[in-house]
């Protein structure tokens, strides 16, 4: 196996371990996060994006990674976001946490995983019809923070600043809501 495979495997196992430890494999804890009762999972998610952005910048700077930014389609992204939210609301898991929870043996996650795989299969079969219908007419091109800031380090710093402020706000606002204790 190539080094990319090993790096991906190690990263996936490490991320699965971390999401299990933070409690993201618990549908109940996810529900408490969505109800703004417990902020551990949203803070973890924002921190994961921050660390990923910094890591990706480092890998790109070292010449190890190369990213490809796909064009943005407002309607396709909106429809995908709605479907993602509905699925998350019904099962209490996002796609990554579904795999981790199924790996723990949670039967509700196993059924959510089967539903996700069925939805993926349906999309794969309808893909050639959906692209011209939902994606192409509403394509607005590539939109990135780099375009707005002028360079990658500034974009990463902006993302870190904004998401760091969001983590702080979650900590302050949600802690005040329930005295800092999970209910």
Q: How is the main sheet built?
A: none
Total helices: the number is 8
- From the N-terminal CA to the C-terminal CA, the straight-line distance is 46 Å
Oligomer: single chain
Overview of this protein structure:
The chain has about 180 residues and is an all-alpha fold. The mean pLDDT is about 85. Helix 3 runs antiparallel to helix 8 (about 150-180), helix 4 (about 75-90) packs antiparallel against helix 6 and helix 5 (about 95-105) runs antiparallel to helix 6 (about 105-135). The radius of gyration is 18 Å and the shape is globular. It contains eight helices and no strands. The protein has helices at about 5-20, 25-35, 40-60, 75-90, 95-105, 105-135, 145-150, 150-180.
Tags for this entry?
single chain, mainly alpha, 8 helices, 183 residues
Give a nutshell description of this structure.
The protein is an all-alpha fold and 183 residues long.
Write the layout of secondary structure elements.
Layout: H1 3-22, H2 27-34, H3 40-61, H4 74-91, H5 95-104, H6 107-135, H7 145-149, H8 152-178
